[in-house]
Amino acid sequence: MSQNKRLSSRRSFFKQTVSAAGAAATGGGLVPYFLTASRAQAATASSDRPLIACIGNGGQGNHNMGLAMNYADVVAVCDVDSGRAAAAKQASGGKADVYDDYRKVLDRKDVQAVSIGTPDHWHTKIAIEAMKSGKDVYCEKPLTLTIDEGKKICQVVKETGAVFQVGTQQRSDFDRLFLRAVAIIQSGRLGKVSKVSCAINSAESSPQLPVVAPPKELNWERWLGQAPLVDYRWQGGKDAEGADIPYKSRGHYEFRWWYEYSGGKMTDWGAHHVDVACWALGLDQTGPNSVRVELCEHPVPFEKGYPTRDDMYNTATAFRVVNTFDDAGVELTIRHDTDNGVLFEGDKGRLFVSRGKLAGKPVEELADNPLPEDALRKAFKGSEPVSHMQNFFDCVRSRKEPQSDVFSHHRSLSNCHLANIALRLNRDLKWDPVKEAMIGDNEAQSFVAREQRKGYEITV
Which residue range or ranges hold the Gfo/Idh/MocA-like oxidoreductase bacterial type C-terminal domain (predicted)? Predict the structure, then answer.
């Protein structure tokens, strides 16, 4: 399949998916939701459907737009890929204005909230500027590219009072299996938990990818954002015998397999499962004291933490990293080589949870000894559990903290960032969770933040 045909096919799928989700949206005309009053005053206009803009119109971005259309009116879409932006406009019902520069979206005073579905390396800059412009934010996971970016987002949320929901949907969705697991653990049914394993599967590798011209509809320089300016790489189509060549690229979707833009499986799935582990065990307001590398495999050679070639995927393909929380007496292992899900081990039993399974002795015992009636509400910050997107818009109106807040996500995701730093350097680390700094390792500390390309700096 050619590159253009593949992109067209994927856009058609996204359009159909979002159109189906949007069909469930409630009716009503577009009512201006101006931010001339305070956030809280604006949110009390309960009869209004808030106006939202969707920045980043790829697969997950458009999926989130479809969900948002159940609670809000989409008035703007924005992407550096004009084809994706056009497809998103159609999926929104054709009413949304189209932009290629997110700053023009943030200039609009009628937009109350933004949904951010860009590649990971763009999340922080857009989110911070959105909050400073008076918008509430729903942003996909993993929220940040570095630990330092997480600290910056937390600072701006405190300063602006923005409602900010991170897209770790396992806290709310997937038949509430993870919510039920957390309620079981927090009710003491496992006793003292000393070990938790987050299995997130192995990551992709690639052959050597050739340099090709970027698609004409893609502004490649702007897509790169804070990352270094490099050539666009892509492989696909047919081989000499007519068989399909698997699509590989340095760009859409495949960005997650490049450390320049993401963190591989460690942050892609780790952002979900490590979040659940830290949430359940009350570790989402602190951090580990040490990081131990037990297994590390990268698809390309590394030197001083950096890949030595730029024509292949470079994030870790096989890994086992153990983060130790001294005060809590817990070892958190992130690994690729067991069944995808989270395994908790306590002195009263074990519990395994995934997107399709909740199992273990404490689960079996629920038949004779059910959880207290308010157990799920307690785990859901005292509110009746609802879907992740509904929770966001409920909080936009109430000004309460959403289920997946930036502060807990920053702390949970820092485990993944630290694991990646250890993997890139292939050595153990010592971490001060209070100062959020490396202990006695200046080289490792240099990876806590990154230099940003001129013109794309992140400021607070």
Answer: 208-457
